[in-house]
Design a protein that fits this description.
alpha/beta
């Protein structure tokens, strides 16, 4: 599958590594493409040539990317961002349970099929989820059933256990889940860890 990752930071690079292992065709869309990088182009060009687009940029940069790519019209758009900012001197979410970053993105890109996923753990885990004894869980939220099947499949290809979390409104829960991971890793000095599911027998 042709996948455009918008942004080539830690998250975008890690997701590319995992998805390329599953033989997906990955390109990057960036603000200033490097001609020496054969897999890099503008946001608009990368998105135009892809079936699926993954947003792996700071949340504050999403509006500009959406404008550049014509709102990602017709694309499956996976929001891997989290709306982070400094609140009272501490890192936190800039919006809460009345809306979510993903729902705001859906308003910016009304002709795209927007999903929330790949936001709930650190980039190190996105690059190598297979190092854990139990497969890490990755939730997917979104309203389009056909597109969701594709996203769940990509999550599995990346090495995670995909779980359907419901409609896009569930992003209001998945973004705080990401914040929990960030806080535990940042403030409790835990070694790298993941969330996983264990089912009662």
């Amino acid at each position: 599958m042709k996948i455009a990752i918008i942004g080539r930071g830690n998250v975008g690079t890690a997701l590319a590594e995992s998805l390329r292992r599953a033989r997906h065709d990955i390109s990057f869309g960036v603000l200033h493409p490097d001609p020496a990088m054969g897999d890099e182009s503008t946001v608009a060009r990368a998105a135009a040539g892809a079936e699926v687009v993954i947003l792996a940029i700071p949340f504050a940069a999403v509006a500009e990317a959406a404008r550049a790519a014509g709102g990602f019209a017709g694309k499956i758009l996976i929001d891997a961002t989290n709306p982070l900012g400094m609140i009272d001197g501490e890192l936190g979410l800039t919006m809460g349970f009345q809306t979510s970053g993903a729902e705001q993105i859906a308003e910016l890109a009304p002709a795209a099929r927007v999903f929330k996923s790949f936001n709930q753990t650190g980039f190190e885990n996105m690059a190598k989820p297979g190092v854990y004894a139990t497969k890490p869980v990755m939730f997917v939220a979104g309203d389009d059933s056909a597109g969701k099947a594709t996203v769940l499949s990509l999550v599995a290809d990346a090495g995670f256990e995909p779980i359907d979390a419901g409609g896009l409104r569930a992003a209001r829960l998945l973004e705080p889940l990401a914040m929990l991971w960030i806080e535990l890793f940042r403030t409790q000095k835990l070694p790298l860890f993941v969330f996983s599911l264990h089912y009662r027998t």
